[in-house]
Amino acid sequence: MIHVRHALRTDGPPQDAKLASCGGDAARTAVAGRVRRAAACVLLAAALVATTAHARTSPDALPEVEARSLPKEARELLVQIRAGGPFRYERDGVVFGNREHILPAQSRGYYHEYTVPTPGAHNRGARRIVCGGPKTSPTACYYSGDHYASFSRIRE
């Protein structure tokens, strides 16, 4: 990178002298071409990352988990969700924004999050259930054991 910057600088004789000894304009053109190609590669990689980071998931693309194979606390929470509570944590039932873009795209307010109690944890822990649709009769619920890094659709 240092050599590229020095080769492109035109504000002093040392750089111009180096370019003159290497062919002057031809060397400058070759270096500029390499810089343009490198910049294009960086832009392409950034575009690919941005596209995949905001890709929305279809309902069929997520793994599924049987409700009976969830932790006991998650199964109990599903019953509480359908009953409308009561819930252990103040934040249970708040709107889940789906900022991770892992769940299928829906309008804001469609998803609500609930904390699955974690035995031995001194805070809310990482386990969550996110349900979509009406609060007491959701159309789909998802389990996350890693604080929204991944989800599995719950099959009841």
List its traits.
156 residues; alpha+beta; Nuclear Transport Factor 2, Chain: A; six-stranded mixed β-sheet; disordered N terminus
Q: Could you explain the architecture of this structure?
A:
The chain has helices at residues 2-8, 13-21, 25-53, 72-83, and strands spanning 64-66, 94-95, 111-115, 128-132, 140-144, 152-155. With 156 residues, the chain is α+β, with helices and mostly antiparallel strands. It has two domains: 2-53; 59-155, Microbial ribonucleases (Nuclear Transport Factor 2, Chain: A), CATH 3.10.450. A six-stranded mixed sheet has the order 1-6-5-4-3-2, with helices on one face. The longest helix is centred in the N-terminal third of the chain and has 29 residues, at 25-53. The radius of gyration is 27 Å and the shape is elongated. Mean pLDDT is 80; it is low at 1-8 and 41-55.
Number of H/I helices: 4
Uncertain regions: pLDDT < 50 for 5+ in a row? 1-8, 41-55
Q: Give the overall form.
A: elongated
Q: How many domain units?
A: 2
Strand content: 15-25%
Order of helices and strands: HHHEHEEEEE
Whole-Å distance between the termini? 57 Å
CATH topology of the largest domain: Nuclear Transport Factor 2, Chain: A
Neighbour order of strands in the largest sheet: 1-6-5-4-3-2
> What would CATH call the class of the largest domain?
Alpha Beta
Structural class per helix/strand content? alpha+beta
Strand count = 6
CATH architecture grouping of the largest domain: Roll
Give the helix level as a range of percent.
Answer: 25-40%
Mean pLDDT: 80
Q: Largest sheet at a glance?
A: 6 strands, mixed
Gyration radius, rounded: 27 Å
* CATH H-level superfamily of the largest domain: Microbial ribonucleases
